[in-house]
Design brief:
Strand order of the largest sheet: 5-2-6-1-7-8
Order of helices and strands: EHHHEHEEEHHHHEHHEE
Largest sheet: 6 strands, mixed
Helix content: 40-55%
Low-confidence stretches: 59-63
CATH superfamily of the largest domain: Phosphoglycerate mutase-like
Number of domains: 2
CATH topology of the largest domain: Rossmann fold
Number of strands: 8
Mean pLDDT: 90
Shape: globular
Strand content: 15-25%
CATH class of the largest domain: Alpha Beta
Length: 243
């Protein structure tokens, strides 16, 4: 099985962190740069799949689909939509097709739930949160200092451990795709932390690997091929830069 892990494009909240306090996390949209990044990722996948499957229509007939699984957040939906627009191709008879042959959403791929701390950006974590929620902050910081950030649960939210468990629950869906429907190539459009959790669980990496691994760049594409981590096949974008 080939799994292509794509982080969403640059979001409006990546540009203006104050939006976290005004808009629900799931409703945050892509910035203009993020839309362009997603288009570039789609163009890359179009060329990649053309090389891998030069006669894609024949693969469709053989039920060898390329399915895209998407986190149901606005920024991931938008990223997936731009990727899909840019993976269209024309067949010999002039008919239009898409190299990605089906799309689904999976709730288990969403971003970490920050609970009481939601809407407060990382650079405010140790001042604004401490002022607004002193008792909850003290408890969280104690757990983080004692056990590590991976295990410390956000008040009314999730720990990174919790995210890893729910992301892992999506794997059965992907294996059923392969075993029952012949779908051996899937594109997963998700979030930085959930992608790290995905890689960690799929590859049986350690907690230490998770904590040392940075979030993937926006619209980067990482390939897990037959249980081998092939790394980034598309490097993606840092901040506002379009490579």
């Amino acid at each position: 099985m080939n799994i292509y892990l794509v982080r969403h494009g640059l979001s409006e909240a990546n540009v203006d962190k104050s939006l976290h306090g005004k808009i629900a996390d799931h409703a945050i949209k892509l910035a203009t740069e993020g839309i362009l990044q997603a288009q570039k990722a789609g163009e890359f996948l179009n060329k990649h799949f053309k090389y891998q499957f030069p006669h894609n229509i024949e693969h469709i007939k053989c039920n060898k689909h390329i399915r895209m699984w998407v986190s149901p957040y606005q920024r991931t939906r938008q990223t997936a939509a731009e990727i899909f627009k840019n993976t269209e191709y024309s067949y010999k008879d002039g008919s239009k097709h898409n190299r990605i042959t089906s799309q689904r959403e999976h709730i288990n791929l969403v971003e970490q739930q920050f609970g009481l701390f939601n809407g407060l950006s990382d650079d405010k974590m140790y001042n604004e949160i401490q002022q607004k929620y002193p008792d909850e902050y003290e408890h969280y910081k104690k757990c983080e200092d004692f056990g590590g950030k991976f295990w410390a649960r956000m008040p009314l939210g999730e720990s990174r451990f919790d995210v890893t468990l729910r992301v892992q629950q999506s794997f059965g869906t992907f294996w059923r795709d392969a075993e029952k429907h012949g779908i051996e190539n899937i594109v997963v459009v998700a979030h930085g932390l959930s992608i790290r959790a995905f890689i960690m669980s799929w590859m049986h990496y350690s907690v230490e690997w998770f904590e040392s691994e940075p979030n993937p760049p926006n619209c980067s594409i990482r390939l897990l091929q037959n249980n081998v981590d092939k790394g980034y096949i598309f490097e993606g974008f840092d901040k506002h830069k379009l490579k």
